[in-house]
TrEMBL record:
It comes from Xenopus tropicalis. This is catechol O-methyltransferase. Gene3D superfamilies: Vaccinia Virus protein VP39 (3.40.50.150). The lineage of its organism: Eukaryota, Metazoa, Chordata, Craniata, Vertebrata. One of its GO terms (biological process) is methylation. It is an enzyme of class 2 (transferase). Keywords: Catecholamine metabolism, Methyltransferase, Neurotransmitter degradation, S-adenosyl-L-methionine, Transferase. Signal peptide: none annotated. InterPro entries: SAM-dependent_MTases_sf (IPR029063), SAM_O-MeTrfase (IPR002935). The keyword S-adenosyl-L-methionine applies.
């Protein structure tokens, strides 16, 4: 009987070690583990959503009106307590560098989630610049508004709720603007290419407009990459990095619209 129990215990330990190894090294396993298993378990045990848990941590740990403090609070929570699908601190440095290099007057963000990348962009914008961010999920948008308010950035950001495919054609008229200087793409990966083409069709891109796409390796956006890398309308550059807060391979694609 003891030998049976030992064998079962060793088998369970081996399975656990295998799962841990796969989660740490494989993007699909990592996303399944954090987004499907752990998140649902925490939702059930806490009675709250992950975005609400992030919001509460920011409100308790970050100084009001301090965007950098709010960003650090999200990073701390997601690195040490609970993973979340922000762009993260490492890829965030790439995003920061692009924003500083472009110095955009008009920025469009596709996919707000809890407002982490929104904060990173907004805090670096020159005076008078505007950031428009689109989020399909009403709950995420509500949380993002509160986090942006706590960070003191809510007056610089216009957050629209709805499908990007429906909102993009309305942007010119709604904001009385012509084209965007920078577009950060970080929503549904299957929407990367359709929305990029829609931006072209709606005349929202000008020569020199920069498109920066996250997660092009994990979980990946192969059709988008094939398009921007092979189209004569873009000049693209790949930035290898790691999935936010993990040791899993990922990357960002910077594509300059040529006209």
């Amino acid at each position: 009987m003891l030998q049976v129990l030992l064998a079962v215990g060793m088998g369970a330990l081996a399975l656990l070690l295998f799962v841990v190894w796969r989660v740490r090294t494989d993007g699909a396993w990592a996303l399944w583990w954090h987004d499907n298993y752990l998140e649902r378990l925490r939702d059930f045990t806490s009675g709250q959503s992950r975005p609400m848990r992030i919001l509460q941590f920011v409100q308790s740990a970050a100084a009001p009106g301090d965007a950098n403090s709010a960003i650090c609070a999200v990073d701390s929570y997601c690195a040490n307590v609970e993973w979340a699908m922000n762009v993260g601190d490492k890829k965030g440095q790439i995003l920061d560098a692009v924003v500083l290099a472009v110095r955009p007057r008009w920025v469009l963000e596709l996919g707000t989630y809890c407002g982490y990348s929104t904060m990173r962009i907004a805090r670096l914008l020159p005076p008078g610049a505007r950031l428009v961010t689109l989020e399909m999920n009403q709950h995420y948008a509500q949380v993002a508004k509160q986090i942006l308010g706590h960070a003191g950035l809510d007056t610089q950001v216009d957050l629209l709720v709805g499908a990007s495919s429906a909102l993009i054609p309305q942007l010119k008229k709604k904001f009385e603007m012509e084209t965007f200087d920078l577009i950060f793409i970080d929503h549904w990966k299957a929407s990367y290419l359709p929305d990029a083409r829609l931006l072209e069709e709606c005349g929202l891109l000008a020569p020199g407009t920069v498109l920066l796409a996250d997660n092009v390796t994990c979980p990946g956006a192969p059709d988008y990459l094939q398009y921007v890398r092979n189209s004569p309308r873009y000049r693209s550059e790949y930035f290898p990095c790691q999935l936010e807060y993990l040791q899993v391979e990922d990357g960002m694609e910077k594509s300059v619209f040529l006209g």
